Every structure is written in structure tokens, then in C-alpha cells.
Amino acid sequence: MGRASILAAVGACLLCVAAGPASAQEELALERLILRSEIPGLPDRRIDLGERASRRYGVVIGNADYAHVNDLKNAVADAALVAGFLRDRGYEVLERTNLDKLGFEALLRRILRDVDKDTEVVFYFAGHGVQIGAHNFIIPVDARLDGAYDAPFEAVSLDSLIRILGARARLQMIILDSCRDNPFENAEAFVELRGEALPARSGFTTQTAPVNTMLAFSTSPGAVAFDGEGANSPFTGALVAGAAANPEAPVAEILAKVRKDVYRATDGRQVSWDSSTLVEPIYFDAARAYEVAVADGAAGSVSRGVAVAPVAQAEPPAAPGSIRLSARYDREVEIGAALFAGLKAEDVPASSLTLAEPPASGALASAPRQGPRRPLGVGAPLPDGGSLLFVSDADAAAAPQRFELAAPGGAIAVELTLTPDPCDAQAGDHLDPGGVGVAVYANEIDPQAATAACAAAVARSPGTARFHYQLGRARLAARDFPEARASFEKARDLGHARAWQALGDMIAREEAATGGRADLLAPEPALAHYAVGVEQGDPYAFYALGRQLLRYGETSGAREQGYQLMMRALEVGHTFAMNELGAFFLEQGSDHYDPDRALRYYAESAARDDIYGFNNLGLVYANGLGGVTPNGPQALEWFEKAAEAGHPYAPGNIARLHNAGQIGGGPNYAQAVRWYDRGLPRGDAWAGANAAWIIANRRPGGYQPWDAATRAAKTMVLRDAEAAAAARDVLSGLDGRALDGAAQALIDEMGEPLTVDGAFGPASEAAMARLTERLGAPTPPGDRKARLEALARLYWSTRPFRVDLF
């Protein structure tokens, strides 16, 4: 089967809703794509029912104070009630109130980092929710659906949220107390790739979910939920009361009683509803959950799938009654041994201590030798046996963390200083589920410094998967492609989710390192790697596979699935998806041309400081795309921001402004060549072809004909066929002296000093011989054009460009 046909089949399977639930169809399609390729290192994707999650994690959101629609009286109180209940039951709880859209994106990024396959998640939301077509959305407090293209940037897709959580967690329970009156009564919005804008309606429609998910809604599909007369809604009040009264009961049993209580409390006007794909029971009581797992055959708790950071070290106290600790910043840091050593030095028995004041960022948790770990709240005793962990959040590395212990002789202040590992600081990746939240973009990586830092980290901690992945990023930036791939493979084998997407990209770009940029359908093994990444909840994999389906899927179903995967990436603020969708909808003459929709995606990307968003808005103003009035100075402003940050095409775009006279009052060919010369080393083949043509035909001062031939030669061996053809056309109009001068210039650039004069004599032959011997390359042919082409290929073999920037 050809690759395009594979994507057609995958898309057809993904969207074949009539054959079964959409989530099951997606999982089946991904599995087929993965298994066809027989890729190495494939993780075990089954749930081991003899084990149990070692971490219980709650996300609780109450949205009440809406800026553009009616407020809700109970939502914050409902969230507080649920958060308190979960904390009392041993959950680590992220509690948020009145979240806006960017706040939701940040929260989802935090969840990506925190949650793994040893985690059981309860997600609770109280606030507005609506259905638009066959899709459900929960509503941030700053949402406004004034235009048809607002939904992706104003609301949060429930389907995307469930799938992101489901891909990361072992088990998830989604509880939604929403569906009051429709806050967007007259709004219509696009929520699918094609079709028309659909009206927002009250309530939620039926919702599919991945395996091991419980969905609990405050009311039945399409119906309205009521606020009730008390401080809490009928649904949330009944849920917490029922769970508190019988915490050892399975949640499914509790929800059945809640349904009766809600029906009774609302005089039959509201019936709560739930749906389950659970393959193991869920209990609010931690001890009961663990007992059931042991009875089913488990023996002990399950360790987290992340390496705990090296233990903290105790330092000399700053003052009596204080303890100072230091450690590398990580998601989890073992501080127990160092803390107890400090307490011993202070002559304080650890068994007498309780937590008096928790840290402002992050949390403390005990990790007993058996059973799930538990967060420590105020008044909790320090663990007697097992580990004491500091669980970081995104702010924990910004400043020393302080907490206070209560002791018989008075309070003891503890200060913990966390320092990011140099490898994280130099090469940590954005939106990386296996990272620690410290990140740089590809254009910000210093190849030499990052390679040194991450090689040291790997040597120090060879079992930490993210260090191998980040070493791969550093080696990719250094253009050491074989070693980069080896590092990504090691990270994959250690369980790093992002490594699958990175390896897929390396497979897809094998020829790009010395062949120039070309937008092609990825080979099947690359698609399979992306699919594994999707299964593991990686936003970069959502984008990579989504883009392939959107661009190359042969059926409308395949393209729709590509669009929905891009939407999933967008929910966590992934700007690559915004830029890709902007370009897609801006394709004039296509059946999907929609300039207003396109420009909204570009604007949202630039608002998040993405260099590709900058460049894309520059293109809009330079070329008058989407009906925008051309504006050279405004285009220059966007292009300069993109070029400064390393965008590969932005220098060439600035050159075009100078060449066309859109800035500066008229054409400036010398300035255009200077900007094109910044673009060609970044892999922009048209920068080389255009610079060659300008030198040959416009003859700006300071350039010789062989300068045109040099740029044309570099371009003609690149992968971009049209740019290469244009470069060959330039060469065909140049004489032998220009070709010989270009050969001399290439030899000189590759480190064999040579006077460039267009006379390729004995000195030039000797320099070329030294060059080929040093590089282990064959002697180029004697024919001028063949010799020049061979030298150009040799040039790029010594100067591969940053394929990670495309």
C-alpha cells in the first residue's frame, strides 16, 4: 500500500463513527499504523491489572466570575468543596478558580508534565459548558464567541482534554458540573475542518472516551443543570456527601446513589449521568484502592515512571532553628535523608515533627514502602519510614522554597534551594511530557554548550531518559545527525514520550540535512513513530501526525482527523499547529481557502511570541494575503523579529522587500544580496537562487560573476527542485571564468586558502587535492560544471544546516 493510501485508510478508520465510538476507532487506527511498521522499542501499551497507581492526582477548577457572560453563583464553592474532599482522601490537588483561556493552556501543560502511567487522575470542573455540533466545550472566564472562528481560542475542547489526560494517566475520572443556561445563545462557530458554523447549545452531547475512563456529568446529555438553593449545586453537594459517607465504595456505586439524590433534590428536573470505559474499579479511599490491587495479585506499590532527582544535601544552617537544603531541580526530589540529618544535628527527633506551614510552590509528599504516596498537609506528621519528597511545580526553581515544621521546642524553618541541571537549562524542550518545565526553542540552543552539559548529565545519570533526549536535541543543533538519532533511541528505550516524535522527524528528514527544505509526505515508519507519540500524549506528536493527515490524507475523514489532532495540540498552546492551520486556510484557490480563519491562527501564534507566527504575519503584510493591504514597513518589522530569533526563511523575506523596493524608497539590490546570504546557510534554497540571479542580472557593486556562480552552485545541489532549476539557469548564462572562480571560492570557504581570480590553474588544483584528501572525498571531475557541482556537494557535507528549525 502506498503512503498516501495508508493515510487514507487510517483517516477512514479514525472517522468511521458509525462502526463504533470515535475514541475506539482512533485507538484502532493508531494501532494498525504502529503495528504495520514493526518499529523497535515499542512500549507495552496494556494496563497491568495486577498493579495499582502509586499517585492520586486531582485537578479542580471553579469558574464563576465571567467577563462577557452571566456569572455562576455556586462554581467556586463547589470547587472548594471537591478540592477539600480530595485532599482529605490523599490526593495531590491542583485547585484553580476563574481560569481564562491562557490559564487553561498553562494548566494543561502542567498536567502533561505531572501525570504519567502510574497516576490516577480526578478532573473536576464547575462552570459554563456548551455543545457546538457534535463537540463539547468548557468555558474559560474570558471567553467570548463573537465570531465564527473564535471557538479554538475562546473555549476548551472537552474531547481534547479527555484524550490528553487519557493518554498520560493510568486511569481518569472526569466530573463536570456544568450546563447551566446557554451563555452564548446566538453564537455560531466552526468546530470542524469543513462544513458550516454551528450554533452553541445548552448542555453537553454524548461524549466518547479512551479506555479506563469514568465520565460523570451533572445532568443528562442535552439537558440543563440547576444551581439549587444552597451553597453548593445539587450534583456536587450530593457527590461529596455520598462519597464522604461511603468512601470505601466503588465510585460507580456512589454515582448511582448521586443520581437518585439529584433527581429527588430537583423534583425530577435533573438526572445526573455517567459513562465508563473502566477496566478496574476506582475508589476515593486510598487504602481501599490499594487493598483491592493487592488482593488481585500485586505485591507492593508501583514506582513513578520518572527518576527521582539525586537526594538533597544539607548545608550549614543560616540561623539556630533552621535547616538549609540544596538539590538539582526535578519534578520530584528526595529530601528526607538530608532533612533528617539536619534535624539530628539540631538534636530534634524527627518523630515529634509535624508540618506547620507548607511551601508556597510545590508540595511535600510521603512515599511509603507500600501503598500510594500521600501529600502532607498542615498538621501532618513527617513520615516514619519511606521517603519524603518535594514535588515541584513550574515556579519551584525560581526562588528558594521555604516550609516550617512544628517541634516541641519551637518552629524549625527549612529552606530548599533547587537549581536546574545545566542540561535542562541548555536543551530542555517545550511541552515535553517527560521534561521538568525548563525549556528553550531549537533556535535558542547553543550546540557546543548544550552538548557538553547534556553529555555530562548522561554520564552522571544514565538512567534519566530526558537527559538522553536533550543530548539528542543538542547534537541535532550541532548537526551531528547519527549521534542525535542514537541519543533519541536511548531516550525512547528509557520511556521518554517525546523521543518518538523526534525519531519520526529524523526518519522524515533523513535527506534534508544536506538536501535543502522540501515539504514531502513522511514515510510510513515516521508516521508510525508519530502515532506512538500520540498514544503517549505528546503534543508535538499530535501536531506531526495531524499535519500529515491534514496535508496528505486522501479522504475527507483523514483530513478531519488531522484537523482534530491539530486542535488537540492547540489546547496546550502549541503554536506550530496555529501556524500550520493558518497556512492551510490561506491557500488561495483551494477548497479550504478561508482568510479570516487563517489570520486568526497567525495572530494567536504571534501573540505567544512564536518566530513562525512573526514570519507568517510578515508574509501577510508583504504580499497582501487574505485581503490585507500590503505594508512593507510593517512586514519588515515582523520579519526582523523572526530573523533575529533564527527563523530560516525570514532573512530571504527581508531580501525580497529590498529587491522589490517595498522599503527604503526603491530597490536596493546589494542589501537584498546581503540578506539572501544570511538565509542560504539556514537552508533557504531560494535565497541562494535569488542572490545568484541578482548578481548576474542586476550587477550590484562589489560583486563579480563568480559570486553569482558560487551561490548558484550551492543552490543547485539542494533538495528544492524548483530553486535548483533556477540556479542552473543562472549558471547556464555564465562563462567558464565565472565557473572556475566559483570553484576557487568554494575551496577557499572550505579551509584551503586560495586567491579567487577565475583562473583555475596548478595552485587551484593543489588546493583542491589537499581539500579532498583532508575530507576523504574523491577527486572532482575535470569538467567545469561537474567539478563545481562536486565541490558544492562537498561544501554542504561540511556545513549541514539546522533541520530542526524547519
From TrEMBL:
A Pfam family of this chain: Sel1
Domain of life: Bacteria
Ranges for domain Caspase family p20: 54-183
Gene Ontology BP terms: proteolysis
Annotated signal peptide: 1-24
Keywords: Signal
Family matches, as InterPro entries: Caspase-like_dom_sf (IPR029030), Caspase-related_regulators (IPR052039), Pept_C14_caspase (IPR011600), Pept_C14_p20 (IPR001309), Sel1-like (IPR006597), TPR-like_helical_dom_sf (IPR011990)
SUPFAM superfamilies named among the record's database cross-references: Caspase-like, HCP-like
UniProt-recorded name of the protein: Sel1 repeat-containing protein
PANTHER family on file: MUCOSA ASSOCIATED LYMPHOID TISSUE LYMPHOMA TRANSLOCATION PROTEIN 1/PARACASPASE, MUCOSA-ASSOCIATED LYMPHOID TISSUE LYMPHOMA TRANSLOCATION PROTEIN 1
UniProt-recorded Gene Ontology molecular function terms: cysteine-type endopeptidase activity
